[in-house]
Amino acid sequence: MSEVSAIAISVAKPGYEEKLAEALEGLLAPTHKERGMLQYEMYRDVNEPRCFVFIERWQDNETFDAHCNSPHVEAYLRTTDGWVESNRIHVLKQGK
């Protein structure tokens, strides 16, 4: 097993900033209960308040994939359809 990290960046469409912030905050509690979650923190860009960043660490790629396909992530995606200008996820491993 090899630990993986992820940086997830979501940018709200203009006017949807607070709705998206609330929906993203709703991911925190259920994700913190997931198997293999080592770190899951949400940040908001101080210079671009439409931009939200998650810093994540997972036990391995399997637990990260399980998170991405979890019921609460799927519900979030359905709820926020049309609110997000862009989503980007960088999955990282340490070293070369």
Structure description:
With 96 residues, this protein is α+β, with helices and mostly antiparallel strands. The protein has one domain (4-92): Alpha-Beta Plaits, CATH 3.30.70.100. It has helices spanning 17-32, 61-68, 71-79, and strands at residues 4-12, 37-44, 51-58, 84-92. Strands 2-3-1-4 form a four-stranded antiparallel β-sheet. Strand 2 and strand 3 (51-58) form a beta hairpin.
List the defining traits of the structure above:
alpha+beta; 4 strands; about 35% helix; about 100 residues; 4-stranded antiparallel sheet; 3 helices
Assigned CATH architecture: 2-Layer Sandwich
Measured between the Cα atoms of the first and last residue, the distance is 16 Å
List SSEs in N-to-C order: EHEEHHE
Give the CATH class: Alpha Beta
Binned strand content: 35-45%
Largest sheet: 4 strands, antiparallel
Averaged pLDDT: 96
Major sheet: order of its strands?
2-3-1-4
Write the layout of secondary structure elements.
Elements: E1 4-12, H1 17-32, E2 37-44, E3 51-58, H2 61-68, H3 71-79, E4 84-92
Antiparallel strand pairs: 1-3, 1-4, 2-3
Can you summarize this structure?
The chain is 34% helix and 35% strand. The protein has 96 residues and is α+β, with helices and mostly antiparallel strands.
